Give the backbone structure.
Amino acid sequence: MAQMGQPMRGRIAIYVLGIFGIHLVFLGARADGQSVPAVSLRRLPDGEIQPQIRVSNDGTLHMLTFRGDARGGDLWYRRQPISSPHWSEPIRVNHSAGTAVAAGTIRGGRLAVGYDGRVHVVWNGARPIAGAHAGPADAHSEQLPLYYTRSDPEGTRFEPERNVIRFGYGLDGGSDVAVDRKGNVYVVWHGKGEEEGEAHRRVYVAVSADNGEHFQPEQPVNWAESGVCACCTLAAINDPDTRNLLVLFRAAPDGFNRDMFLLDRTSSGQVRRLLVGRWQIGQCPMSSAAFATAGDGIWAAWESAGQIYVGKYHPKDGRLLSSVPLPGPAGQRRHPSLAVDAQGRVLCAWSEGTGWNRPGRFAWVVLDPQGTPLGSVQMGGAVPVWSFVAAYAQPAGGFVIVH
């Protein structure tokens, strides 16, 4: 995969006026005759950052964004019904204003959509918990909360947020949420272990067996010697076939190794671990990762030494295939986003050059179902401070990048 395919011929650029801005659509065909799917660019409303996109079973788009002060703003939800080209009016997710955070890029909101259409959202709290939000963790009222809320099935309102942490405090990096076909909800984050320091941090999972109505106390799922890189976020997804919970996280067993691992947790609670990428760096890179479901496995993307790597994982037999870097030289590639279309083609989009309080640009490449590039890397427009891009596949073909 390190060798790029032949250049596209007959590429056409088409500009159309979109709901949130201008779409730039690339069409073309490779010299070997394989088609390169169209990629459209869709702008966020002014002042909104950190898009998260999920597509429900009926083809409805669900989007989460952040607006306001990066150290204490709000999360907003929209949906685009399959029968409409327009997003719905935005709904504020957090009942208490200013309780979400975007600073650091990796601490913002995450969403999952259940098979019943209900939307589940988690985010790092912007302020220490107090009052009604403290929940069962009153003894830790000076700790930052991890908030969870869910919508009604129609997505017209959200319940008041709840702190799901019982004892796994010490939030620094972000969190994630996943839902399976049975209505089990998994909230995943990392926090302090039994001792201080990154080498003792744990990845925690709190499970709800009643679609988010109640959560059991969190349980650690990484092994004690792995540690967790404190200000790197993680990614979680539920495999629809096996119902296994998959988690990508960056370990930190010492001050030098920051390797990427995949945790595969079965419905019975057994955990399989797999090393997916090594990175020796003596500091926290504030990295992120991404998942996307394919018909024959789960695609994953993660950062390592300025490069984005992708691989396809098969939960049924625990194999990771096509673990390769994206084409082009490593540099400052960060914050990947993945989408898979009906033909099994994969779009990977990412940020270039972003950092602490620093904007950048975004780029993307489309891969075939085996992970081989279809065409060359394309560069997009600006990525604002603290933001990233999101991607999704269109039912009729092609991909969209929201920025």
The chain has one domain: 52-336. The chain has no helices and 29 strands.
